[in-house]
Amino acid sequence: MRTTDRNVILGLYRSGHARDVLEAAFDLGITRLDTASNYLSHRSHEVLKRGAGDLLPKFSVSTKVGYFPEGHSLDSDRLRAGAERVAKDLGREPDAVLLHNPEQGCPAAETLAQACTVLAEAARAGLCGGWGVSSWDPRPLVGLGVPRPDILMIRSGLLVSIDVLEATEVLVESWRPSQVWGMSPFGGSVAESVWGRFDPRLFLKPSRSPTKVQAAFRSAYRLPAVDAVAVGTNDVGHLRELIDAMAYDVDDQVIREYRRLLRARRQPV
Ligand SMILES: NC(=O)c1ccc[n+]([C@@H]2O[C@H](COP(=O)([O-])OP(=O)(O)OC[C@H]3O[C@@H](n4cnc5c(N)ncnc54)[C@H](OP(=O)(O)O)[C@@H]3O)[C@@H](O)[C@H]2O)c1
Question: What CATH number should be reported for the domain holding residue 85?
Answer without folding.
Answer: 3.20.20.100
